[in-house]
Structure to design on (108 residues):
């Protein structure tokens, strides 16, 4: 009983020495042409997705930068308001001290 040897991927003959059937050239050529085309289409889809992602990230970055500028302006306004209130507080404190001084002079 003859054992059939495994055929390798690149074997072009059957182990008993007879040539194997040649693969249909059309299907082989078609696979060769389709595979690169599929890869190209897949690559194009990936590139398109990457470009869209970059666009979205740029838009998001722009929005965030604008929001930062708005918040910095608001912070600046609040800092000026705080400084103004501190100045007013000092002024009121000085006025109160003067009034208390005047009251002390009247009581004597």
């Amino acid at each position: 009983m003859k054992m059939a040897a495994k055929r390798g991927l690149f074997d072009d003959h059957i182990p008993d020495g007879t040539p194997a059937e040649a693969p249909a050239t059309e299907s082989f050529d078609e696979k060769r042409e389709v595979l690169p085309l599929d890869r190209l289409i897949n690559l194009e889809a990936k590139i398109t997705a990457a470009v869209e992602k970059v666009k979205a990230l740029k838009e998001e970055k722009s929005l965030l930068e604008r929001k930062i500028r708005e918040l910095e302006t608001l912070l600046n306004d609040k800092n000026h308001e705080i400084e103004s209130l501190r100045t007013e507080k000092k002024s009121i404190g000085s006025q109160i001290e003067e009034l208390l001084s005047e009251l002390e002079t009247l009581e004597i």
Q: What stands out?
A: The chain has a mean pLDDT of 81.
